[in-house]
Amino acid sequence: MDKIRFGTTDYSVLFALAQAGLTVANFKITYTRWLTSDGTSFTKSTATTLTALASITTAHTNNYGIYMSATVDDGGKFLFRADFPDAAFAAGAHRVICSLYDDGDNEVAQRIFDLTADLSEYQGAIWYDAAAAGTGTQLGVHGLPRNPVNSITNAITLANSLGTKRIMVKGNAALSISTVDFTFESWDGTGQITGSGSADISNAKLYDLTVIGSFTMDEDTRMYRCAVGTGGSSISGLNGSCYGCTFGDSTALANGAYVRIFDGQSHEISGSSGNCEISLGGYDSTLNVYSWHGYLSIQGFTNAGAWADINMRGGRLTITGTDGDYRLFGEASLVDSTSGSCSVVNYMISADVTAIKTRVETGVPNAAPGGNNGVPTVDVNNYIAGIQGMKNDFDDLNDISAAAVNAEIDQALLDYDSSNGVAKESSVLAIKAVTDNNHGGVIDCNLLEINDNSVVGNLATLTLKHLNIVNADGHAVDISASGSGHDGVNITSADARAVDLLGKTFGLNVESNAVSGGQALRIYGGSGSNSIGIVATGTLYSAYFTSDATAIRIAGLGTGHGIHVTGGDGGATGDGILSESLATNGNGFKMIGKGSGKDIDADEITNILADTNELQTDWTNGGRLDLILDDILQDTGTTLPASLSAIDGKIDTIDTNVDSIESLLITVNGKVDTVDTNVDTLLSRLTATRAGYLDELDFDLQSNISAIKTKTDNLPSRLKKNTAYSNFHFVMIDSADHISPESGLTVTATRSIDNGAFGACANSPVDVGNGLYRIDLDASDLNGDTITFRFTAPGADARLLTVVTNL
């Protein structure tokens, strides 16, 4: 299907005809215009007879025609030109069908065109200018850069037809959209948009425009490089984001708005205050000004949910309000007129401080860069040079150096707590530096106090909620008690674990350095009846332990015992060791001795070994227990169970076979009954007359079958697959009247085998006469199941014949 831009003029339609030499005056043309895309509504022109053109170079003339060439590459057809009127391609239709008829009102050719607009001329937008004279909604005609429309309603209609969401506003004329919603769109240009009522530009994008008036916006509304409420006007209902925009005297946010301003600035200074006023709505509005230059005044802070983050880049900021929260950043002069419950967090650097610094730097005399690094000098009487009557009350200004500054700082640290006589604060500052910066380091100091108690005399107490000490190499903690009769560690727990230890090598390594009698670790259980000195669990109870973790492993060194346990010491009745294993395969108690030490004293297991050795003797061949078992087997026999089992299996097999035979007999009996019933039915229907018919039927049937077979044997067979066939006949019909057989043609023969592409037949057709032709079909022409032949010739209708081959 072809495309053509509507509004095209002087267009000639070319048709391919099957025959040349016909008189042009015998042709007529019509055109049908589809007014809807589906063609349900259309108009058709009256058929108009063509007039012959003088030559193919003659200019377009409505309702004229001419043969263009002898033939074209389309089955030997001829090219014909017909000049259609401009009305055929005018705007207002979706499609036009151009038709060519012969003098018998038969349609001999047809061309279909889709009417389209030249979208590139729109540059992706509909153009609007209030001062323009153009109006209308004809796509391709109105809303172009050269022909903008002056109606926003027309602009939106054109935008919908064009499939764009962009309006280009030209000139400086105001565009009022008080009665039109144009959401999810893009506005661009150099003009001005004026909103009134509830003009909806939610989700819209505005570029380089002047925006004033009242609008309905949402958080997705975007404005880029726009002049917002400028030119002595104002804007209300502001919401969304503004990028690089300039603001006028008065801007009001929508209720509950969320406004973000990037690189904003004030447009002009008016009145004594010189402020660009931005007013928040009465609800929980949020204003984020990420960068602002110039004068800015924030108004309407009367709601607890109001929030404003302001980042100034110079100028003056005035804030007012009785409630809500301000956070201020950047650099500007600040006028704080807030009151009531309004909260202000000010991180700004005042522009006044910067101005003072500038004045000091430029106003101090004798501050030339070449003299004393810009610092004024003093005379012999310590008066500052260049300032009459100003005596130097500071350190010598002529001695300003890094070493001197460092010395002053060091002295100040030492003087901070002169009563103690030590640099107490140096340690404090060192610790604070490490903790404030949230990183590890070395604190090079001695703790002289703990919790305001002096460590002198070792009587200070360090109270910690949790102490986590990790050392990758060496002991994590070294504890030594030098006093007589005092413990290195004394751990007491009122109602919990006193110690919970986990170590990669040893959870707890305790050694006694005493030559003799020293106790490395001494543990007492509580005084209660169920108190336990140590609870050790070797089973898995957390991700830190493997499944074969050992709770306590005790080894004797040298000739010493791994463990020495005494029960009932001092007359008590307690066991020396009470061992219990909760695991299925866990040992209740396991000990290993080193050197000459034994796992367990041999005297304790002598009796056990004697008993087990006696059992081993009794179980040997000929032993007491073995002989008893032999007597039992002699009485019962060793083969009886096997024989009984074999007999039982055979009985089961016989039972199964009997069941199968019984089932088969039931089935056979049912079938015999059915046959008997059928025979009885046949005998009741068989009369003497019918018996005679059967005899006659049997005699005639055989002769009739023989006669039919004789005839069918003489019937012609179908074309055989992949087998040559001679003298295949077909008829060619004249293409002018589509009725008369046409002789004397040069026929081209092609064939499609099993839905494949048409290819030339091996042989050419031969004219038999009176429109009849024949062709000898080669085996390759019939090498398929379904074959369609196509015979064509100039001046004749194409002939299609389909055959089905036989194997």
Note down, in words, how this protein is organized:
This protein has eight helices and 42 strands. A hairpin with a 6-residue loop joins strand 41 (786-792) and strand 42. The protein is flat. With 807 residues, the chain is an alpha/beta fold. The strands form seven sheets. An eight-stranded parallel barrel has the order 17-19-22-25-27-26-23-20. Strands 1, 3, 4, 5, 9 and 10 form a six-stranded mixed beta sheet that branches. The chain has a four-stranded mixed beta sheet with strand order 2-8-7-6, with no helix packed on it.
Break the fold down into its secondary structure elements and pairings:
Elements: E1 2-5, E2 12-17, E3 28-34, E4 42-44, E5 48-49, E6 51-52, E7 64-67, E8 78-83, E9 95-101, E10 107-116, E11 126-128, H1 152-162, E12 166-169, E13 174-176, E14 186-189, E15 192-200, E16 205-207, E17 210-216, E18 222-224, E19 227-228, E20 234-238, E21 240-243, E22 246-247, E23 250-253, E24 258-262, E25 264-266, E26 277-279, E27 286-299, E28 307-321, E29 325-338, E30 343-346, E31 349-350, H2 351-363, H3 402-415, H4 424-436, E32 449-450, E33 453-454, E34 555-556, E35 592-593, H5 606-619, H6 624-636, H7 640-685, H8 688-713, E36 725-731, E37 748-753, E38 759-760, E39 766-769, E40 772-777, E41 786-792, E42 799-804
Parallel strand pairs: 1-10, 6-7, 11-12, 12-14, 13-15, 14-16, 15-17, 16-18, 17-19, 17-20, 18-21, 19-22, 20-23, 21-24, 22-25, 23-26, 24-27, 25-27, 26-27, 27-28, 28-29, 29-30, 29-31, 34-35
Antiparallel strand pairs: 2-8, 3-4, 3-5, 3-9, 7-8, 9-10, 32-33, 36-40, 37-38, 37-41, 39-40, 41-42
